Amino acid sequence: MAEQGTTTRIASVDIFRGLTMVVMIFVNEVAAVRGLPWWTYHATAEVNAMTYVDMVFPFFLFVVGLSIPLAIQQRLKKNPSIPALWRHVTVRAASLIMLGLIVANANAGDKARMGINPYMWALLALTGSALFLNAYGGSERNAALHRWLRGFGLVVVVAMFAIFRSSTAQGDVSWIRLSYPEILGQIGFTYLVVAILYIPTRRWLWAPFACFAALIAFNALTVARWITVPLPEYFKLCSNGALAAMTMAGIATSVIFFGAYRRQGLRMRIQFGLAAGLLALTAGWLLVPLGISKIRRTPTWTLFSIGAAILLFTALHLICDVKRRTAWANFVHSAGTNTLTTYLIPDFWAYILGAAGITYFGRHLNMGWPGAVRAAVFTAIVVAIANVLTRLRVRLQL
């Protein structure tokens, strides 16, 4: 997720993140609706195709990359210690992976083995995480209370992980499944990989572009099966470079738009955005023989998503940063600046319903366009709740 503690916010980055977050909530909700056109769902692994839904996660990884150079610059201004920076990176990645594992395993818990409803387990684990990650702020008078709340939240999370049990297909007892840490965990792994590549080389202007080119080449070679990389199950998410390439593309774009080259002026930035976006789309088209698939993480999916993200961000930069027209995007403000809180609201809602045994919403308005309208209304409600929580200073910060 985006760094929330920076003192300088950039409108285009926040709005790009907010729009992506809103669309992500909508497509996650509409995935349970049947009878809609094929392009409203993820394309299946068996076909060579991609839909707009397949581009939402790549857009989020791209905006993570946009934020990394800005966040690191701000953090080093406050504390120039490189070991402290690496501690922050490690804790941030671990927190994302922790949240991802909670969400990924919530439905797999065995009530008989744990002694607690799996949905209640997930609620307690996420509530503990929220207490630990919340940016309390306020005066020094409350600092001790805030430390206590963070410590208590961490104890709750550790306890929930300790008691978790699930059953295998053979009926054996199992612990937390690490093979798929959900979207947040994937972001955590990707963030860590990209940080390892970027932080040591951040002073070299060419380094993000070289890393991006190497990651794309690696992506293409692994999909073509010219090379294979044996990795443990929980590292396979990073095994073909696609996710890291998307994030590195965001870093390279950030370097041009907000880094060392910003003195070159608006024209240079817009030209870069248009050229890089069109180049990525062209490269993706040339690699179509390797397939088009989010599930298979093909280079065409990677490059098409990157090209579209760069072009959209270039337009937002011109509209929001240069012309300063941002009022139209006020509705995504909290989603863009309090992103982790916004992301977790649907999960809290689902677990509350599950713990209460309420199934009404899963059995009604889940067909055709009425279901799509329901998903849109749900998205609007989540955004409204995020706005309220932001005003109440509930802000989960990594």
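the 2nd protein, sequnce then structure:
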Amino acid sequence: MQSVAKKTTPGKTKLLRILFIILTLYITSFNVNAQPKTQQIKADTTTKFNKKRLKYVILTESILYSSSIVVLNNMWYKNYPRSSFHFFNDNDEWLQMDKIGHATTGYYVGKIGYELLKYSGVSENKSVWYGGTLGFVYLTSIEILDGFSSQWGASVGDLAANTLGSAAFIGQQLLFNEQKISIKYSFHQSNYAEQRPEILGNNLHENVIKDYNGQTYWLSANIHSFLKKQSKFPCWLNIAFGYGADGMITGKPDTENNFTPPLPKIDRYRQYYLSLDIDLTRIKTNSKILKALLLSVGFIKIPAPAIEYNTKNGIKFHYLYF
């Protein structure tokens, strides 16, 4: 009997495989580009074009891109039967938490691509378009590999989410020359991982990536950026709108009986949050080390009081929500 787990595991594992690459690129790009006078992603016309640096950036990106695709193909996809290219509909799984994860990845890989091109002195417009689409290109390559595997297939929902994430970065950079609204991530341990550790993680560092019940994704809006430039409102204070989900031990609802022995049936529900946040990238400092550190963890939503509304229990207040 084929379990539902075989149909839902690949998407989660795929994100697990690329997340460490994304985070490494994210941290590295900001470490090499951390300048004390640059407090946010904004057009910088003072950086002179550096052909040698650009060649290094392109070479590094090309090696990372091609090697990661080869590694994924040889270590993962070759272990499954091949097929003609086809699509796989997984839009009803995990209450769309995996799709938001794809959008977040597309957003930050685009952010990395932009920063690295700006670091090379490439013009603002070219940096936005060429760098900002890096996430879409990379994630689309993985979807193509999915599409030629008979085990699952390319996901239209994933492609749409990848596009949305890249567009969120590119659109804001073109309109505002900065990111007024950032996508952020937070995590707390749930009670469900121990019921399916092979899917939701065996320990904390696996839970952080694999347990959607503990993940929350945020749209963190910088309040000062929407006010007049002379406003004395704190430039680092954000208001954040979050989305999460709970009660998920399988990808699709009502599939617990497909397993042997049957899994316990749990009511899954959506969660919506309102909270405050801190934009670490806008904190002024003359320390390059501290600057690099703040930028490196800037994708994390800072724990703060939050109001939750969920579709099961209604309104709930958290004194400190992670």
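Residues 5-321 form one domain. The first strand starts at residue 181 and ends at 187.
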